[in-house]
Amino acid sequence: MRPVLYFFRLAVNAVRVLAVTAAATFKSRAALQLENLALRHQLGVLQRSVKRPKLAAADRLLWVWLSQAWGDWRSALVIVKPETVIAWHRKGFRLFWTWKSRRGKPGRPAVSKNVRDLIRRLSRENPLWGAPRIHGELLKLGIDVGETSVGKYMVRHRRPPSQTWRTFLENHVKTMVSVDFFTVPTIRFQILYVFLVLAHDRRRILHFGVTAHPTAEWTAQQLREAFPFDQVPRYLLRDRDKIFGAHFSRSVSVR
């Protein structure tokens, strides 16, 4: 009953505003200016005497409606700040959609316990099956359930622990090098390419070469010069540049 009462009060206030507006059309301009002066003076007195005016819900709804229907509503607002009216509008928007969502249809239907147990059984007895495979098997049985729900109720198989990337680096840092290029602009606005071989154990520069026209053959030759006596590292880190293609990979594998 309270929402109905609020809307009734809002309608009453709206009727009063329309009545005052209709009556004002028959008044002279001088009478309207004097009435406006008298009303503003009374508002000033109320502001000095009342620190925080008490507004009913119908009053808030009226100002929310005025803020949407009247472009110059801020100029006539005195008792509260415009930000307060905007906050009322946002609160009303949230309350409206909360009420509408409660009256609407519920979300996804809950998965029954029998279906959940069946999903776990299929997952436990077939550890190589993923959610798509189990979902397909359930559809064959006439069980309509989403693939996301299947993945939610699957059994999580324990995997053997594996070393982290940091542990791998700590264990093999002495047998690991990195290769890469960086560019250097010259005073003649040319570009030189610097090939760099870096050791990870002490962050040492093992070798570098400079050229204006890098090729895969030249890059492979630089790697041979960096490790001339079969001192090839066990792990070589590089990016996916095309210069580290098939020719470079064959040269590294031959070494």
Keywords:
single chain; 255 residues; alpha+beta; 3 domains; 11 helices
Characterise the protein shown here.
- The chain has helices at about 1-25, 30-50, 55-70, 75, 80-105, 115-125, 130-140, 145-155, 165-170, 215-225, 245-255, and strands at about 175-185, 190-200, 205-210, 235.
- It contains 11 helices and 4 strands.
- The protein has a 4-stranded mixed beta sheet, covered by helices on one side.
- The protein is an alpha+beta fold and about 260 residues long.
- The protein folds into 3 domains: about 1-105, no CATH class; about 115-155, no CATH class; about 165-255, 2-Layer Sandwich (Nucleotidyltransferase, domain 5), CATH 3.30.420.
- The longest helix is centred in the N-terminal third of the chain and has 23 residues, at about 1-25.
- The protein starts with a helix and ends with a helix.
- Strand 1 (about 175-185) and strand 2 form a beta hairpin.
- Helix 1 (about 1-25) packs across helix 3 (about 55-70), helix 7 packs across helix 8 (about 145-155) and helix 10 packs parallel to helix 11 (about 245-255).
> What average pLDDT do the residues reach?
78
List low-confidence stretches: none
**Amino- and carboxy-terminal Cα gap:** 88 Å
Major sheet attributes: 4 strands, mixed
Proportion of helical residues: 55-70%
Strand order of the largest sheet: 3-2-1-4
Strand proportion: 5-15%
Number of helices: 11
Structural class: alpha+beta
Shape: elongated
The succession of helices and strands, N to C, reads HHHHHHHHHEEEHEH
Instruction: Please give the radius of gyration in angstroms.
Output: 39 Å
What's the count of strands?
4
Overall number of structural domains? 3
